[in-house]
Design a protein that fits this description.
about 20% strand, alpha/beta, 6 strands, 6-stranded mixed β-sheet, Ubiquitin-activating_enz, THIF-type NAD/FAD binding fold domain-containing protein, ubiquitin-like modifier activating enzyme activity, FAD/NAD(P)-binding domain
Length: about 140
């Protein structure tokens, strides 16, 4: 019975992924593969030619729009949607921030940007190192 409850909770969950460079794109793909019910994608920055997760024809398009066209759920159990920056996203169970250390520090300077009714998981992208979550951060 425990596995069935876990699977049901996963299918009812909504996760917002902010920051869709390679790390965020990969995390979104894994969330979809894990059967998360709804995955919201948020990143209006344009795709650049140096990003491996996207196609060359996506260059210049907003990352969330391009990612939405590339990510698919083979099992058909996840709903994918674009969440424009600043949109009200009530009902989100987890907000995953895939950002650089500098961007996370900048967010810390603006507490109003962090007002959500859900946990925030900052996942830092450090060049040359593995992704990490910041120990002691007030964001999570």
């Amino acid at each position: 019975m425990g596995a069935a409850v876990t699977e049901a909770r996963r299918r009812l969950s909504t996760v917002l992924v902010e920051g869709l460079e390679e790390l965020g794109f990969t995390l979104a793909r894994h969330l979809i593969s894990a059967g998360i019910g709804t995955v919201l994608l948020c990143d209006e920055s344009p795709v650049t030619g140096a990003e491996n997760s996207y196609r060359s024809l996506d260059e210049g398009r907003p990352r969330a729009e391009a990612a939405l066209s590339l990510l698919e759920d083979p099992g058909g159990t996840s709903v994918l949607a674009e969440a424009p920056e600043g949109a009200i996203t009530s009902g989100v169970d987890l907000r995953v921030l895939c950002v650089s250390t500098a961007a996370l520090d900048a967010l810390g300077q603006h507490p109003e940007a962090l007002r959500y009714d859900c946990p925030i998981l900052p996942v830092l992208h450090s060049p040359g190192g593995p992704p990490a979550s910041r120990y002691g951060s007030a964001l999570c």
